[in-house]
Design brief:
Layout: H1 2-18, H2 27-38, E1 44-46, E2 50-54, H3 59-62, H4 66-70, E3 76-79, E4 83-86, E5 89-95, E6 98-99, H5 104-113, E7 121-125, E8 139-144, E9 149-150, E10 154-165, E11 169-182, E12 186-206, E13 211-234, E14 237-258, E15 261-283, E16 290-308, E17 314-335, E18 340-358, E19 361-381, E20 384-401, E21 409-425, E22 428-439, H6 443-446, E23 458-460, E24 469-480, E25 484-504, E26 507-530, H7 532-541, E27 553-564, E28 573-584, E29 588-597, E30 602-603, E31 606-608, E32 615-624, E33 629-636, E34 644-648, E35 654-659, E36 663-672, E37 681-682
Parallel strand pairs: 5-8, 23-26
Antiparallel strand pairs: 1-2, 2-7, 3-4, 4-5, 5-6, 7-8, 9-37, 10-11, 10-36, 11-12, 12-13, 12-35, 13-14, 14-15, 15-16, 16-17, 17-18, 18-19, 19-20, 20-21, 21-22, 22-24, 24-25, 25-26, 26-27, 27-28, 28-29, 29-32, 30-31, 31-34, 32-33, 33-36, 34-35
């Protein structure tokens, strides 16, 4: 409590000195210092509608896989039953400003295979306005893999290796190369890499008297990615072309036993993903006027086979093909109203085609078409910022299974959003926000086939008759100097799509259902504590002019979530994260990260018996060769405490799971130096941002 009061006093003092006039003879020095600070990347940026986490310069985040880095972000939860949520909001996943369009275990495998040192930053948009898809539900996570293009040839090589030992030794290694250049005609960029990943998992389904299923899985995953970008400049305009290809080939050996059975199986899961984006950006003499056109095509092909290793008989032979098209255009312009007002408008059209097969027979043929238009105004008046917008979306959903037609869904809805922000001083603001959103059932939840492991007592399947979810989202937040924030949010959801475990005869099944009404309450607090407070005292600390990312500090996060369901009476859950950074001699940076949560609370239809993602990680990092070579050595889950345990509410079943989370590894990034002194950074190519100062991911 004493530390909390000290930090609040520190913030209050900062408020008061920031409002004082600066003496004239100190103006040049102050301006120079500000330029130096702004030229350095920030670990965390708090903006009115989003939080941005820098991966490229944070060794504890960019060591290992993208999934391992995401799990260390304060407020972000990843689990078998919860999926991916941030501060209580389900996340729609984008990559380089485009929808990823893969879900569930395919998404988890994808993010576990993608090296974290190929990521530049992660944006979590907690208050998406009218310019963002209404189908984003509660929040959006945009994983930005692009790097800055440079004039003349430049290259960066990244490598990583990690090791675990549970019942036996397992290894992971990855390599990637980023090459880019620019000439007087065009700029180009290529990023390619591979990942080899061995993993272990054990899972139990049981009640007080019977073990329904006890599985041990030994995985071996191979993943390759290839990303390209071209940028052509036409005076003020530019044309960008992107093509991404990823492929994964995952194999697993599963030994399972339980009530009435004993089996040994082999699974094979192969996924190919292609993504093409064309973006024309029209610019005018008025720099505030912008017109963008974008066309995106995304295809995913997945095959999942399960074979008995003893008999050689096929247990499962499932697959799907998914094709997604999207066209959108955005226009924005500033004009004089109040002090400054920005007007944005745009239209969108997209179509999703999804076809699932079982043993070569199509048992789901699903089509969805969306048409949308939006208008939004952003105004500034004195210390106030206002946002008012609305989005009209029309949906047409139809299809059929192998036995019947789906219930058609044809609806047009209006989605308003409004926000007001009071800027107390620069970098200190109070924000209140409301938006209405919709979440359409993703193809993983719709797929009637099993694309996961099953045995005689346990099965997994989707529901092709799921209905969309409507959200009303409210949020209030106070933010100060990027790192301190306190906020409360509430989401009211109708027809929430949720995965739950039910009893199925003598066994168990994991199914997707619509929950009629759910309310989610969220409280969040982020608090930085510089260690110099304890060594130098508050008075001396306030005399320092420092970059928070280069000092010794402790960052604390506390969150509380409570899910209110019509047929469940449960407690809320507390989540805790502590991250400490210490700069050791020889500029070695030591980072420690600890996650845990309370137990006994309900998370939708699950009551957690074990803390969410409880683990302690440490990383040592140092730069060499003029900062061109970065080396990190890390150990995740030192005490081997990360496991999952849930009571499936409404049943007598218990679900438990443990991965090989204790891992030791090393990561390096080498920026191959250029001898050309004229080399300079320019706009990125792989990420087609609409806004140069604040990347948006469009309609």
């Amino acid at each position: 409590m004493r530390n909390f009061l000290i930090c609040l006093s520190f913030l209050t003092f900062q408020f008061s000195i920031a409002q004082e006039e600066t003496p004239k003879d100190s103006v040049k020095t102050t301006e120079l210092n500000e330029v130096v600070v702004q030229s350095k990347k920030k670990s965390i940026e708090q903006k009115a509608d989003r939080t941005i986490f820098d991966f490229s310069e944070q060794s504890h985040l960019n060591s290992g896989s993208v999934m391992e880095g995401l799990k260390k972000l304060p407020g972000l939860i990843v689990s078998d039953v919860a999926g991916m949520m941030y501060q209580g909001k389900q996340l729609e996943v984008f990559m380089d400003a485009r929808p990823l369009n893969i879900y569930s275990n395919e998404l988890t495998s994808y993010l576990e295979s993608l090296p974290a040192n190929s990521i530049e930053k992660v944006e979590i948009i907690t208050q998406p306005g009218a310019e963002f898809p209404a189908t984003s539900g509660g929040a959006i996570i945009n994983i930005v893999t692009s790097k800055n293009a440079k004039k003349y040839l430049s290259a960066t090589y990244s490598n990583g290796y990690s090791y675990t030992k549970y019942d036996k030794s397992r290894h992971r290694f990855n390599n990637s190369l980023l090459v880019n250049a620019k000439n007087k005609w065009f700029g180009w960029q290529v990023q390619l890499g591979q990942n080899f990943n061995q993993g272990y998992q054990r899972t139990n389904f049981q009640n007080e008297t019977t073990v329904l299923s006890k599985n041990t899985t030994d995985r071996e995953n191979r993943f390759y990615f290839f990303k390209t970008g071209l940028k052509f400049d036409f005076k003020k305009d530019r044309f960008l072309v992107n093509y991404d290809f990823t492929t994964s080939n995952n194999n697993a050996l599963i030994d399972a036993s339980g009530f009435g059975f004993n089996t040994s199986d082999k699974s094979k899961n192969k996924l190919n993903r292609n993504d093409v984006a064309l973006n024309y950006q029209k610019r005018f003499d008025d720099a505030t006027k912008k017109l963008d056109f974008r066309f995106n095509v995304n295809s995913v092909n997945n095959n999942f086979d399960l074979t008995n290793r003893v008999s050689g008989n096929s247990v499962l032979d499932n697959g799907y093909n998914q094709l997604f098209y999207q066209f959108k255009t955005d226009y924005s312009q500033e004009f004089s109203f109040l002090e400054k007002t920005k007007f944005s408008t745009g239209v969108l059209a997209d179509k999703l085609e999804f076809e699932a097969q079982n043993l070569g027979v199509t048992n789901l043929d699903y089509q969805r078409t969306t048409l949308a238009a939006y208008t939004e105004f952003q105004s500034t008046y004195k210390k106030f910022d206002f946002i008012l917008g609305g989005r009209l979306e029309s949906y047409a959903i139809d299809g059929n299974t192998d036995t019947d037609e789906l219930i058609p869904f044809n609806q047009t809805r209006f989605f308003p959003n409004a926000s007001i922000q009071y800027n107390i001083i620069p970098q200190v603001f109070v924000n209140a926000n409301y938006n209405k959103k919709i979440s359409l059932p993703n193809t993983s939840a719709l797929n009637p086939n099993n694309t996961n492991y099953q045995n005689p007592n346990v099965s997994f399947f989707g529901n092709p008759n799921l209905e969309p979810t409507i959200f009303d989202n409210y949020e209030f937040k106070i933010s100060a100097f990027e790192y301190f924030f306190i906020g409360y949010s509430r989401s009211d959801a109708n027809n929430q799509v949720m995965n739950r475990i039910i009893t199925d005869g003598d066994g168990a099944a994991s199914v997707s259902e619509n929950i009629p009404q759910v309310t989610i309450h969220n409280f969040n607090l982020g608090l930085p504590v510089p260690y110099m407070l304890f060594t130098k005292g508050l008075k001396e600390t306030l005399k320092f002019d420092f970059n928070p990312d280069e000092i010794n500090f402790l960052y604390l996060y506390v969150g509380h979530q409570k899910h209110i369901l019509p047929d469940v009476s449960g407690k809320g859950l507390w989540f805790f994260n502590a991250m400490s950074q210490i700069v050791l001699p020889s500029k070695i940076k030591f980072t420690a990260n600890y996650n845990t949560s309370s137990t006994g609370g309900n998370y939708f239809y699950y009551e957690n018996r074990a803390p969410f993602s409880q683990q302690f990680d440490v990383t040592f990092a140092k730069k060499f060769l003029n900062n061109n070579l970065s080396v990190s050595v890390y150990c995740n889950d030192i005490f081997n405490t990360n496991k999952q345990g849930f009571n499936a509410l409404g049943t007598d079943l218990v679900y438990e799971s443990k991965n090989d989370s204790r891992r030791v590894g090393i990561t390096l990034n080498y920026k191959i130096p250029t001898k050309n002194k004229l080399a300079k950074e320019e706009g990125n190519i792989l990420n087609n941002d609409k806004k140069e100062d604040q990347p948006a991911i469009g309609n």
